[in-house]
Design goal:
Rossmann fold; 7 strands; transmembrane helix; FAM173A/B
Length: 207
């Protein structure tokens, strides 16, 4: 309101011979208000997508390809139990693994992606097999999960490996996509290039 009052003062102080017609001035104020509202709305929507770039470790939203999903499912063959996808995005890994028989959870910091995934779960009648959690993955304990999937970035792999060793139970399996863990030896590798997945198992010797 203060901005609008300031604009009104400016208009009222204009020389009468130069004064803007009242209808035009009101239209201008409305346009300013509408433009400001649109800019604010865009900012609010974009913040959850842009803000990861300002964090120490960035986990951007890059949807898994069909081949990556197939490789993850192949890596999980013979496995059962609970599963969590760290940085679940639009939920495609969670839905695919739930369909394969896992009790699948996804953790995601972006609220828009969390609500999208929850809505999709409701529409596809997958709510009983899936759960989407809005939280920072670094603050979420993983000890109850038998299987973990991560589409990570290079700069986070050292820290997340420490988290895995500390929190996961013996025999838990980790499926790392795009980047491998730095020190644990993989038990198997599937695919190549950006579609590569590395399979790890938490052993007693790591504890």
């Amino acid at each position: 309101m203060s901005e609008i009052n300031e604009i009104n003062d400016i208009i009222n102080n204009i020389n009468p011979s130069q004064k803007i017609p009242q209808k035009a001035s009101k239209l201008g104020l409305y346009l300013i208000g509408i433009t400001g509202g649109i800019a604010t709305a865009i900012s609010v929507i974009c913040i959850p997508f842009v803000s990861p770039a300002f964090r120490k470790i960035c986990l951007p939203y890059v949807p898994a390809t069909s081949q990556q999903i197939r490789n993850v499912l192949q890596a999980l063959e013979g496995r059962t139990g609970s599963l969590i996808d760290l940085g679940s995005g639009d939920g495609r890994i969670v839905f695919a693994t739930a369909k394969a028989g896992f009790k699948a959870h996804g953790i995601e910091l972006n609220p828009w992606l969390v609500w999208y995934s929850r809505l999709k779960a409701l529409i596809t009648s997958s709510s009983l097999q899936t759960k989407f959690i809005k939280q920072n993955l670094w603050n979420y304990n993983l000890k109850k999960y038998d299987n973990v999937v991560l589409f990570g970035v290079d700069q986070m792999m050292k820290d997340v490996e420490i988290k895995f060793i500390k929190e996961l139970q013996e025999d838990a399996v980790i499926i790392a996509c795009r980047f491998p863990l730095p020190t644990i030896s993989e038990i198997k590798t599937i695919g190549e290039g950006v579609d590569t997945v590395w399979i790890y198992k938490i052993s007693k010797s790591l504890k």
